[in-house]
Give the backbone structure.
Amino acid sequence: MEPTVDGDYIIDNYFGFPEAVSGRELIGRGVSQAKKFGAAIERERVLSIHYDDEKAYTVTTDRREISACSIILATGIERRKPEIKNLSAFEGRGVSYCVSCDGYFFKNKRILVVGEGNYAANQACELTHYSPAVRICTMGKPIEMSRDFTVRLRQAGIALVEKRISMLKGEAGLSHVVYDSGEESEVDGLFVAIGDASSVDFARSLGIITNGNFIQVDDEQKTNAPGIFAAGDCTGGFLQISVAVGEGAAAAKSAIDYVKNICRV
């Protein structure tokens, strides 16, 4: 069951629906029900989450910044990686998925960000705090960045490389990327930021414990970071909608308790 756009799949095994229901319809019903109880639904792409000095979280989206006392991560799991022949061999040896975790290790180094959208642009801009030598490789895909990010990249001197990387080279660590054309480029660090940021991307940037592509939570859906909870496929286990709904309810209850008892809102 692989959606191509939001809800573009058929569900045959969800409780209470003897007839098949589309993901789009199920999502629509859920949104309508949430609005009935006063919930505000905002459709924005989250680019980064940072913990600030006021013991709150700043969520940066493609439109604005939002301050939050508590956050529930529930964006499912990200299965996509760039189709680079020997990418996994260089993970931890020049290839990274987390700017907040590893950006410092590439101070004043040659950095290449892989991605074509706003997420890649945001990661590249954050990397300029560590190095002036930052570029973005779109892997030959069309550029899907907003005008605002296009301007920010130009002002930061971040070049766009519209080529496809076929493989990586290096002895002790990454030293070169090889494009389909056979051309090589010197690179010390390669940061993967394809598509949109996933729950695990956010978790890693906040120092949350993960196990592979999954976020570790307790039986109340709590992570090891204060005020951060996770639910659904991003936590692993039995990857079914019914399970995700139950975990979502548990995470919401835990988040409400946290806000009342810790944040005192």
Notes: Confidence is low (pLDDT under 50) at residues 1-5. The two ends are 40 Å apart (CA to CA).
